[in-house]
Write a sequence for this structure.
């Protein structure tokens, strides 16, 4: 089981939202999430209204990772960058893509290698 403490805000003043527990069994991932009591008492907002209730106690999500977390998780697209397989023409993607290509180059330079 993997555990993650979830925070909102910036590094200078993070607010603890809660804790997520991830379990992998037979190739499937399930998530249990619990809001922090101080977050709830302070009028916190629901981080994933489609999957969670803004209540105390553990909430099990058996169908995988919460959408709020899966959106931030690494995927195949990001996994290709350290291997140098990023798009050459990123003009339509803007400055974020350019920065990502530069970051991919620095990762390769630092010695990161592809797993495949």
């Amino acid at each position: 089981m993997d555990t993650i403490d979830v925070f909102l805000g910036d590094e200078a003043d993070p607010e603890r939202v809660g804790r997520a527990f991830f379990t992998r069994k037979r190739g499937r991932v399930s998530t249990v999430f619990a809001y922090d009591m101080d977050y709830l008492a302070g009028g916190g907002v629901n981080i994933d209204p489609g999957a969670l209730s803004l209540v105390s106690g553990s909430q099990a999500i058996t169908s995988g990772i919460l959408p709020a977390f899966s959106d931030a998780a690494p995927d195949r697209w990001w996994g290709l960058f350290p291997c140098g397989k990023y798009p050459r023409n990123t003009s339509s993607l803007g400055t974020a893509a350019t920065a990502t290509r530069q970051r991919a180059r620095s990762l390769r330079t630092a010695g990161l290698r592809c797993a495949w």
